[in-house]
Every structure is written in C-alpha cells, then in structure tokens.
Amino acid sequence: MEQETLAARYSRMAEESPDRRGVDLALRFLDLLFSASFLLISLPLVVLIVPVILISSGRPIFYRGERVGRSGRVFSMLKFRTLKPNAESRLGPYLGSELVERTRSEFTPIGRWLRATQLDEIPQLWNVLRGDMSLVGPRPIRPRFFEELAADIPAYWQRLVVRPGLTGFAQVRKGYETSWAEKLAHDLEYIADRSVGLYLRTLVATGWRVLRQSLRGLVRPRK
After folding, report:
1. What are the mean pLDDT values of the chain's consecutive 10-residue runs (223 residues total)?
2. Which of 159, 154, 116, 117 is nearest to 139 (CA)?
3. What interhelical angle do 196-219 and 180-193 show, nearest 10?
C-alpha cells in the first residue's frame, strides 16, 4: 500500500478541523466582491504593464508557480514576471533572507520596479476569483517547501484550513526575514480568530503598507 505523504495527511487533518462555514462563506463573498472590483480598477495599469514587459524582457508575461492551497490542493499561482528566464531553477533551493538576497540579481529591467511597488501581484486577483486564494490568509508556499516545513513544524498543517492569501497577518506585521515559525504563529492567530472585521482590518493595514512601499519604489526602487 502506498505510504501517505505529509501533504496528504495534513490535508486530511485540515478537512477535519472545526466547522467555520458561516464565517468562511462571508469571507468568500468579500473575496469575490473586492477582487472583481480591484481587477476592474487595475485594468489601466495592466494595459500599460503588459507591453512594457514584452518590450523590455520578452515572454512570458506571467510567472506561474505551483503552490499548496486549501486542504492541500496544488494550484498555479499567477504573477507578472519580474525575474530573468529560468530564475526559479536557480533560486529554487533557497528560502528566507538568502532567497531575498539572491533574487535581487535576477530582476528584469521593469521587474525590480514591479516588485518594489507590488504591482506584480495584480494577477493573483484572478486566483482569488477562481477560489484558489483569498485576499487574506497565509501566503501560498511551494509544495516541496511545504513538505519540508511540515516535517519540522508539527502545527504547519493548520495553514491548510483556509485558502492562502494575497496578504496576511505575517506580511502586515513582519518582514521577509522573519523566521518561518514566527510567520506561522501570526498565520495561526488569523486562522483561529478569522472574522469579517479582522479580514477588513488586515486589508486596510495592507493597503497602507503597499501605498508606502509603492511611493518608495517610485522614488527609489530597491537594489
């Protein structure tokens, strides 16, 4: 008999978690409402970004990466491509601050600006509409890293209880260099206490953070 993988086992455990269907239904409604609205508002930016990517670095326009979603389902996460071709194969083995440092040398001419202003995240709104993601939740992670982290951190499976988010508690409160254990603590706090009010407060905090980062990116993109 084939041995159950960690991802499959934790997926099964996530499905058996306490029932929060009322709250999750309300949050799903807000996801659909806000993501559709944000997509419409961002269309003029998309019309500008796409040809600039094509002219400056060619195809593909989008980055597609496998990520672990709710209940362990793997989906393809979308972003505007910000890195050179085949960058993921070179960056694949790295995590945390080392990944951030090595990524800096892989940016395309427009990619550094897109990342600094976080406009590369716009296509993830489509993932939210599809139901792969939520606007608020733990950030999606690659399947291989999920297996490794779940093996080291027993509570890691609990991230699978909700859809991964475009933003989350860990992103609002902490930076990229924060340890995985610290990020998980904030993610689990959100999962346990998730509500419409907390969801909205996280979106407002994210909007303020993105605005500040975007203004810095317009004036002085990160090196």
Report:
1. 58 61 92 96 94 88 92 93 74 64 76 86 96 95 86 82 90 69 83 91 88 64 44
2. 159
3. 140
The confidence score (pLDDT) of residue 140 equals 92
Report the C-alpha gap between 30 and 7 in whole angstroms: 28
Q: Which two tokens stand for residue 5?
A: 């993988």
How many residues can be counted in the chain? 223
Q: At CB < 8 A and 24+ separation, what contacts does 13-20 make? A: 13/157, 13/160, 14/70, 14/71, 14/72, 14/157, 14/158, 14/160, 14/161, 15/71, 17/158, 17/161, 20/194
Which sequence spans correspond to the domains of the chain?
A: 6-219
Instruction: Give the type of residue at 123.
Output: P
